[in-house]
Design the sequence.
């Protein structure tokens, strides 16, 4: 049985700041269903520790980051976990990366280097304990794992998945000396990046294979436009770079079984979706009507997510009678702009700032259209949830959005393959054309229902993606 160790900083439902947690929570279960022996290595953040059934202690370390224990346990779903119990690193308030004032912790280089270092210790074997054949690191937090494996003579093969290339884990050069890596690794052919230490570059350089979370994003990050300064390295490693789409955890996200909804529904029995819309309108103080579409956004409020485009098109959207509801938090100016719109149009616009998992389910079920107009998007899970729930995605043709949504063009409608609304240019004018296509299709109820049925028929689960990962692991081991 193939032994796979995933290495990450968060895992749903124990701890989540974004889509990474959803992937790390679901992919191991899908790989396990495919016959692999999969375990996940995580920092023992308080929320992760509290949600784990700890069965015992595996090892103790005196590391460069201080003493640490390695614990073994399982989640309620049966995911097998190793937790790095180092209170001096992980037992603190705030989210995994920042304090309560959103300031990055000054010792993040130590906290996440420890994560990669322990992964390499497991790969080398701990007194005959479970030993992985492949170590799969996720994002910059685990980026040093392939470097520590390389320093140890590569006792396991390694994969790094880039969930978002824009976040690279860059620290001053002076931090390198305290991380127990060979001095020669601080080099252009290594972890050095413009005079600094880059965790993500370390992973990209030393991993045996690099994956991203969609085929289009794998191509895009080799260009200057989206390579974030790493396009040269990624071009050089293009033979070891591939894109595998994320999936949806259907045990958590499925309208027929979602316990967070006021009513369940399926593509064959859609009455529950109308009930979800009415309940959402009531909850948010919007006019309870079904004559016009309800657009929703569930997102971090950042430039990357294209939210300024939403602000640009909202006046016409509202003038046409549409409604709009948003859940998210982020840049202060975007929060304030959406808050002002809600104040000016209280019966058409609702804005909830912050993170609320249950409300995100109700928004996606109750909406008619989900907007994801990103500047760049490695994969995107929100549009996949929209497809699953019959809430048609309105997306920009980029990254994983381009790979998962087909526009309601005349030829796609004729071929019965349209699943949403796709625009190309990063401009308000092009986004507005997509909004107009929403209202045009909405006015033809039978065609709207046909597109919605096609959207809900898309296979967005993890099985196919898990099979791709298993094939990759087998290829690396062979």
Sequence:
């Amino acid at each position: 049985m193939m032994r796979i160790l995933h290495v990450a900083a968060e895992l749903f439902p124990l701890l989540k700041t974004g889509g990474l947690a959803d992937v790390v929570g679901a992919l191991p279960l899908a790989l396990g269903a495919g016959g692999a022996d999969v375990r996940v290595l995580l920092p023992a953040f308080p929320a992760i520790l509290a949600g784990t059934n700890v069965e015992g202690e595996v090892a103790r370390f005196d590391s460069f980051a201080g003493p640490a224990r390695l614990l073994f346990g399982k989640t309620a779903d049966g995911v097998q976990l190793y937790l790095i119990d180092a209170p001096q690193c992980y037992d603190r308030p705030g989210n995994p990366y920042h304090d309560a004032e959103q300031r990055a912790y000054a010792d993040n280089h130590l906290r996440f280097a420890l994560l990669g270092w322990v992964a390499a210790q497991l790969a080398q074997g701990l007194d005959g304990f479970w030993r992985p054949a492949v170590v799969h690191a996720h994002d910059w937090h685990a980026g040093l794992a392939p470097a520590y494996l390389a320093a140890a003579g590569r006792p396991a093969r390694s994969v790094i998945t880039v969930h978002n290339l824009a976040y690279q884990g860059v620290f001053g050069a002076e931090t390198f000396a305290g991380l127990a890596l060979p001095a020669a690794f601080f080099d252009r052919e290594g972890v050095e990046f413009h005079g600094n230490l880059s965790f993500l570059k370390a992973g990209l350089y030393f991993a045996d294979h690099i994956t991203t979370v969609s085929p289009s994003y794998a191509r895009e990050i080799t260009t200057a436009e989206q390579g974030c300064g790493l396009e040269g390295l990624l071009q050089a490693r293009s033979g070891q770079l591939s894109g595998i789409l994320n999936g949806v955890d259907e045990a958590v996200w499925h309208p027929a079984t979602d316990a967070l909804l006021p009513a369940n529904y399926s593509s064959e029995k859609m009455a529950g979706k109308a009930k979800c819309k009415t309940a959402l309108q009531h909850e948010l103080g919007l006019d309870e009507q079904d004559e016009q579409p309800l657009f929703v956004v569930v997102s971090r409020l950042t430039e990357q997510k294209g939210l300024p485009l939403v602000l640009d098109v909202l006046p016409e959207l509202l003038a046409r009678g549409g409604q709009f509801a948003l859940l998210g938090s982020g840049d202060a100016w975007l929060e304030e702009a959406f808050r002002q719109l809600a104040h000016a149009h209280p019966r058409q616009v609702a804005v909830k700032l912050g993170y609320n998992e249950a409300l995100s389910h109700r928004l996606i079920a109750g909406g008619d259209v989900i907007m994801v107009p990103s500047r760049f998007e490695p994969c995107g899970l929100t549009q996949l949830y929209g497809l699953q729930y019959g809430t048609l995605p309105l997306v920009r043709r980029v990254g994983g959005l381009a790979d998962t949504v087909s526009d309601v063009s005349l030829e796609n409608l004729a071929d019965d393959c349209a699943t949403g609304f796709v625009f190309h240019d990063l401009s308000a004018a092009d986004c507005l054309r997509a909004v107009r296509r929403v209202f045009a299709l909405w006015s033809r109820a039978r065609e709207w229902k046909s597109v919605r049925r096609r959207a809900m028929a898309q296979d967005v689960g993890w099985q196919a993606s898990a099979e791709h990962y298993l094939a990759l692991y087998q290829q690396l081991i062979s």
